[in-house]
Structure formats: structure tokens, C-alpha cells
Design the sequence.
């Protein structure tokens, strides 16, 4: 089988064309291509889908443009709390972490949980103790995660909150789109095995240990060789309530839908009906790729076995 | 519509007949009946399913026999970390909390998250800050959660771990059954609305901020008027990987299965095939009830509109 392929996203939301300069666009496209090539390299050399999605996500975690790892958004308290998940479609083994503060590459800790823990989801300081016990080094200086762009986003969010409190208007989800972002990857390897990985800093100004859909198996991340691999991005609360990623798998398995139809139904109709905004990247064993989103834009791209590479930000 | 009904579980696992004295059995049955009657009272008086499942779970949280609230199991560090989730089948609104340490009734905090937060899943100290900000009092003295029975379970688990470390045998899930437990309830009210609630102390000797299936929407808890309400119990890692509760809903919606068939397939075949041990209580809008489990026993019971009440522990 040589239909190997990888698809990635770098977050969905309100990405206004008017705010997108040619320089910015070039930087994002460059980041997406770098991530795709990292994953593609693994697949081309005969590596496993699980290693390819890890490599692709790792690349975006290291890139300050994306809301994961370096460049993650700030919490209400001005800290960073990151979530990540990785799932192997061969065995449905999975590792996930939530609300970790001092992990440079959350996706590597999620992988460590998958490989070395009898549990699948660890959170907070406990997850960090697990990291240390398994030889991972914690980030000493939280300044590592600091970026001017994200700091300004937090200040803007805090000011807006203050204005709303004065005006006594209730906070709602309507402007969440510009506060979010996630990175994710799905892949099928030369053996036809599937995998998915997702990583995120969550929402700007989030509080109270909020966990979104990213580390939730079946919501933000899912992979099963019998159906598909999915990584979601968007307002996590709605993605969780819709059990979005597993819903796609169920539509394929139980209703015999194609990947494309299942992705369109799950995102464009069902997520929209719930009032949620976001998108997915998804792949099946034949190398079909779906990348629907109902937000204004989604950083996304794919790379196929023959080396064909494509990226996009806005709706065509 | 007068087919209102409630079904509950108080955990599944290795419940050996030989260790069950008549006194113990009487106490458990008494606890189950008390919980059922608390939920039934709400339904009989025309209350909502969401309030009925909350009342039923609250009753078991207050009962030291069950692994939730008072009577919750100990973590590796000798503390208590509790998870809970509540979901309304009318709106699919949901509230969940994970790894909270000082909440007397986790199900009430989950409900508060559902009613008052723009988020659906909060964890750890952040969740406790949310509780305080919304007028909830924290448990001052963690001794409140201390029970001799659970303390002895932890000591036994720690000794076993030491022996295994010496013998250099890898920890596996084979004896998890006697370390776990969860409480949960599902109900249909006089309006035909569904709801589900689940609460747990997790696994004895758990570590590293482990989160199980209980607070995960679609894994341990799910409710949707179009299909069913489900609360699961068992080894959470497998229930999460199988997205058990939502899988039942998907089988009903997409394959037109009955509640009973969907529950049997999801638990007796699919969970068993994954290697997982546990069970569910589930209900549909017609008041059908399913309570399959593949473990040796499951504390369980139901109560119907006409006042008929039944409880059971072992397989009949």
C-alpha cells in the first residue's frame, strides 16, 4: 500500500483576510509546510502513522505562531495550561494529558502516557510528576512559553471582560473564535495504519482548570483503523457535547458513510446545529482526506505519497 | 407520559459472594433503595430527570459504602481525588469536574458547572476556585472522606505493588476490578426527558492526576433525548477508549438498535473484546432499562412509576 498521507491543522477561528498580511500568511504557510514535511518524512521512510502525527504536531508546538507549546495562549492568571492527546488506530491505545504547565512538548508527554502508563488521561501536577518519573525535563522558566502576540490577546480579553462586567452583560461564546486554536495531525502510513494527535494551549483567558476537547478521546482526537483518524479544533465545549471525533467514526461504521460525508455531516451540520464553531482534519485507510470547517478560516494542509503538498487558510 | 423511571448503579467489579455477609448485603441494598427513592420522589412529584439523577447520586455520595463522596477510595498519596459528571438529555448541556479534593458532593459541583459556567469540564484546584466563587463551601478537614475500609484497601494495594516491584513483574489491569467503583443514575421523567449522572473516587492507589471515564462526556456519562441516558462503571481506561456511553447512543440512532441490544453489544461484546471490565445502567424515553455488566457483580437497582423497586448485586 502506497497511499500514505498526512493532513494537519493549525487551528480554526476568525482569521480575517483583512488582518492577514502577505508576511503573516507566508509565515503560517511556512509553518504548515514544515509540519507536513516532518510527518511526511516519517511516512516516506516506512515509519508508523503514530510517529508521523507526533512529528507533525511537535513541529507546530515548536513554532510560536501556533497555539500549542511555544506560543500557547495565556490563562486568566497569566499562566499556560496545555492539553494534548495521541491515539493509535491499530490498537486504539491512547495517551492524553490535561492542564500541564511546565511541559515544553505536550505531545511527547501524551505519547509517554500512551507507552508507559496504565492510565490514559493524566492531569495537572500529577501528569508532571509522571513526566519527571519517566525522565522528561520540565520547563524551568515559564517565560519559555511567553510570546508578545498571546500576551496582547490576554490583555485584550481581560479588558473586554471588564467592560462587559461594567455593562452587566453575560459572557457568551460568540467571540470565542478569536481566542482559540489547536494544532493537530492525522496520518495513514504505508501499512495502512491510522493515527491522530492534537495539542493546544486552550482558550485565551480560560480559568478554573478548564479542559477542552483536545485531550478527550472521541471528542477532539480519535483513531481506529476500522474507520478513520480525526483531530478537531474549535470551541471545545461544543465538540465535547457532540462527541465529534467518535461521531464521525460511528457514522462511517454504522451508517456506512464515506469519510467525506461523515466529516461534512459532523462539522457542517451537527456542530453548526449545536452552535459550535470549528473544524476537523480526518483521514481513512485509503488516504482520503477531509478538512471541513464552519469557522471563517482554518490553517490546514496535506501531503500525499507522491509528494504533492497543499496548504490553505481561508475558504477557497 | 407516565412511564417515568430511574435506574442506578453503585459500582461494578469483583464482588465475591463468599465475602458478602448478610449484614453487608443488607447495608448495600439499603443504600441502593435509599438512592432510588430519593430519585423516584423527584420524578413522582413531576420533577425533572436531571434533578432526579442528581438526588440519587447525592444519596450514594453521602453513603460511606460507595466509592464517591464520603467513602471515596484513596489515591497513592493517601488523598482523595474525585470526578463527576451530569448531563441533561433535553439540551445536551453538561457539567463535569475532575480531580477535586475538597468537594463534599462532587455531583453538586458538576451541576454548578453545567448551570453557571461557560465551560463544561473543570479540573483540580481551578474547579475548587470555581466552587468557592459560586458560593460552595469546601471540605476543611480531608478526614471527612476517611473510611477504614478504603484505608485498608490502599494499604493492601501498596503492599501488593511492593511485592510486584521486588518480583519485577509489570503492573497490569487484571486486579483492577477490586480497586474501583463508581455511582451513577439515569432517569426518564414524566415529560419523557432523559438525564444521566455519575460520580466516583476513581481507583484505589491511582496516581499522577489520573482521570477516568466518569467525567468524560460520551465515555462514562451521556444523555440525549433522541436516544438514551447512560452511566458507566468499571475500568475507566477501557470505557474511554471504547467511548462506551456515546457508542450506545450511536448504535441506537444509526443502527436503529433497541436500548437493550445496544447496551448488550457495547458492554458484553465490545467492552469485553477491548479487555475491559465493567457495566452500565441505561434508560430510554419509553422507560426501558438495561443494566448489563461483564464483571462478577454490579450494585444496581431500578424503580418504576408504579412504585415497583428492585435491587441486585450478583448475576441472577
Sequence:
Amino acid at each position: 500500500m502506497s497511499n500514505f498521507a498526512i493532513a494537519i491543522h493549525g487551528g480554526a477561528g476568525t482569521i480575517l483576510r483583512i488582518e492577514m498580511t502577505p508576511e503573516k500568511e507566508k509565515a503560517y504557510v511556512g509553518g504548515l509546510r514544515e509540519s507536513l514535511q516532518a510527518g511526511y518524512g516519517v511516512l516516506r521512510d516506512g515509519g508508523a502513522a503514530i510517529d508521523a502525527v507526533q512529528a507533525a504536531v511537535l513541529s507546530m508546538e515548536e513554532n510560536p505562531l501556533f497555539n500549542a507549546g511555544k506560543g500557547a495562549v495565556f490563562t486568566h492568571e497569566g499562566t499556560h495550561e496545555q492539553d494534548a492527546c495521541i491515539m493509535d488506530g491499530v490498537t486504539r491505545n491512547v495517551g492524553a494529558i490535561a492542564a500541564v504547565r511546565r511541559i515544553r512538548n505536550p505531545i511527547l508527554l501524551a505519547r509517554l502516557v500512551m507507552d508507559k502508563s496504565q492510565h490514559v488521561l493524566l492531569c495537572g501536577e500529577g501528569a508532571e510528576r509522571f513526566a519527571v518519573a519517566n525522565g522528561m525535563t520540565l520547563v524551568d522558566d515559564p517565560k519559555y512559553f511567553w510570546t508578545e502576540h498571546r500576551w496582547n490577546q490576554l490583555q485584550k480579553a481581560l479588558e473586554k471582560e471588564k467592560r462587559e462586567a461594567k455593562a452587566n452583560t453575560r459572557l457568551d461564546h460568540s467571540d470565542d473564535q478569536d481566542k482559540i486554536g489547536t494544532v493537530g495531525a492525522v496520518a495513514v502510513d504505508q501499512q495502512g495504519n491510522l493515527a491522530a494527535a492534537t495539542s493546544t494551549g486552550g482558550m485565551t483567558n480560560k480559568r478554573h482548570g478548564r479542559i477542552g476537547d483536545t485531550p478527550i478521546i472521541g471528542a477532539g482526537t480519535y483513531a481506529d483503523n476500522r474507520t478513520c483518524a480525526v483531530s478537531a479544533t474549535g470551541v471545545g465545549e461544543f465538540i465535547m457535547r457532540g462527541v465529534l471525533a467518535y461521531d464521525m467514526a460511528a457514522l462511517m461504521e454504522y451508517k456506512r458513510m464515506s469519510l467525506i460525508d461523515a466529516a461534512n455531516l459532523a462539522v457542517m451540520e451537527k456542530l453548526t446545529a449545536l452552535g459550535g464553531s470549528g473544524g476537523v482534519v480526518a483521514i481513512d485507510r485509503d488516504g482520503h482526506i477531509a478538512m471541513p470547517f464552519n469557522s471563517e478560516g482554518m490553517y490546514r494542509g496535506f501531503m500525499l505519497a507522491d509528494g504533492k503538498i497543499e496548504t490553505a487558510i481561508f475558504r477557497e
Q: What stands out?
A: Chain B is about 35% helix and 20% strand. Chain B has one domain: 5-312.
